[in-house]
Amino acid sequence: MAYWLIKSEPNVWSWDQQVAKGDEGEAWTGVKNYLARNNMRAMKLGDKAFFYHSNIGKEIVGICEVCQEIFPDPTDEKWECVKFRAVKKLQRPYSLEEAKNNPKLANMALVKMTRLSVQPVTEDEWDEVLQEVGK
Q: Count of domains in the chain?
């Protein structure tokens, strides 16, 4: 299993909206960055992803799971997307500021590549964030 982080502005698509989609999940559409697209191409069923509220909040708020691998983006078929379902809300949000101040996360893409909307997370980074929020 691999780990990822997906970003959404909460006024565009929020954690609560993701949860409301239930087991059906939601297609992660509108990604128009080649590196982010390549990250989605690498995703497999069951991979986990942190759900991050960008711009407003700037914090990891929950965990999603890949429930459908790469397919044409229905909003722009020149691009591709995957589908995620919400798995669990974190006990508390984990902020970008906390990540930046945690030496164990110094190399995390969230800290180094703050604008990338779909990014990999190492197993050690995943475990560290979960430990910090009390799982």
A: 1
- Answer for the pair 48, 120: CB distance below 8 angstroms, yes or no: no
CATH code assigned at 129: 3.10.590.10
Provide block-wise average pLDDT over 10 residues at a time, the chain (135 residues).
Answer: 97 97 97 97 98 96 98 96 98 97 97 93 98 88
Contact call for residues 72 and 40 (beta carbons, < 8 A): no
Q: Tokens standing for 39? A: 């990250």
Could you list the residue range(s) of the whole structural domain that residue 75 is in? 3-133
CA distance 102 to 119: 18
Q: Which residues contact 6 (CB under 8 A, 6 or more apart)?
A: 28, 49, 50, 51, 52, 64, 84, 117, 118
Please tell me whether the overall predicted TM-score, pTM, comes out greater than 0.90 for this model: yes
